[in-house]
Predict the structure.
Amino acid sequence: MVVSIQQGKVVTKQPGSVMFPFERNDFNPRSQEVLNKTYTDHKSYSKLYNLILKQGFELQKPLYDSQSKLRDKLTYEQLLQGMLFDGERLLLSGHWIYYTKVEFLDETGTSEVRPSLGSGRACLTNKRLMFLVAESNSGAIRRKLDTDWSGLRKAPNAYKLNLSQRDDVVYQSIPLSAFRSVELAIAVGASAGTKIVSQNLCLCNCLGKKWKAAPPVSQKYNKRTIQMGISLPPWGKTSLVVMHVHPDLPLTLSRDFVCYVQTYATQLH
């Protein structure tokens, strides 16, 4: 393994692989929220942030050496083959909806009612929505750690970081009759912020205070989600299903997905 530093980022290169950094985008959406909150929670934000990324890099190295590989491989087309019912037809002209993560949350959107899915594809028919995952982290090009399996959680006076890497094959089917709502939300842009803190000029505070600004922090964001209220099979568990659409997916395809769901999910009429 070759290790180097490029523009302040730790990057690696394996034989037959491409170089990549370990950065904030490797974390799942909820982990990124925790990471963003460290800026307001801690004065030593930059040190904590850099240490988290450094530890993430250190944790990922043994994963590539110890990961067991799935022997039997399936493409998405092979996974879908034979799954369609009589009279069922593909919508969206057969296009996939690529997603980076699918969360199955409770009614309040705060806790999971079913394990989330990592990167995969959604297939919409006139009868149901299918979530498919046939992702492999092996091969000539080494991929980043799957965002679904990267986790950063805040603990009392500490932060817990967990990483894992795996090959996944998943098939989940949800009938359109189980839909209760569908919403599209897209936010693309950038944000910047700084902290202005006060410091006493003396121990007794008789000389007043001085104010000091922390270095500004800016970040880009490209968040595209389709949120669906669904009565999950098999037992009808109420859930807010949040599909994080891949940022490169055409906006018109996301819009058409919502239009077709509204057309064929009879409970929405």
In short: The two ends are 57 Å apart (CA to CA).
